Structure formats: structure tokens, C-alpha cells
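Ticket opened by: R.M.
Priority: normal
Category: complex prediction / small molecule

The reporter submitted a protein together with zinc ion and asked that the result be attached to this ticket for the collaborator who will pick it up next week. Submitted input follows.
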Amino acid sequence: MFEAKCPCGEVTLRLLNAPVGEVYSHRDECQRAHGAAYVLRAIFNRNDVLVIGGNVKSWTNGARRTLICSCCGSHMFSETDGSPFRDVNAGNFPEGRFNPTAHIHCKYAVAKIADALPHFADIPSEFGGSGDVMDW
Ligand SMILES: [Zn+2]
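Result attached by the on-call engineer:
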């Protein structure tokens, strides 16, 4: 168990168990929402993510709902109707807690990151994606 706070300190999440996946997401929607080339994501079982302090607001994009801090606007997590997972902004983790194992949605990449991690075009096949990898 550990906690994650937004930059202004208003909202605190309690994360009850280890994430099922930690990735850099290059998705086009992530780029739009964050104004960044890629974002830090940790996927948790839905019931392992609790808001224990502060006020959040939400916005939706189709079946996907995103919760943000009502004060600083930091993305806290997203969830999709019917999904067993919540997609947490790992940029709010304590230092050293984010341990990514892959890059995902690399077909949208605007900044290619050369490292030893796999670079999936969309998402790994075990999560319903093609499993295809990029050549970088
Ligand atoms: Zn905040």
C-alpha cells in the first residue's frame, strides 16, 4: 500500500496493492489531455484505487471517465465503464515508485524514446491489443 498526491496536495489516492502494469503511454488522447509527448501510467485493479482526501471532479470522453484534482487540475485516474481496471497517473507517485515495463500506443509517438523496454504499437495482446511492436 502507498499513497499518491497531486502537485498541490489537495487530493490523495491510496493504492492498496501493486499495479498490474506500469507503462509510458504515447496515446494521442493522453497527449491532448496532458500537453505532453507521453505520460506515466500505472494500471490497478479497480478496487485497489481509493480517493482518501480532497475534492475531485470528473469529465467523460465516451465511456471513459477521468477524475482530476478540483484545485490544480492534475489527472488522478481514469476508468472505463465495464473495465476491471483504473488507470492512475503515476506522475503523482512518490519518487522511486514508478517502474515501467513497456511503452504503449507508440503508433502515436511524437518523441521516440530509445531504451531497452518493448515499444508496443497499441497495447500488449494479454490486454486485448495487437501485441505488435515498433522497430525502435
Ligand atoms: Zn491538486
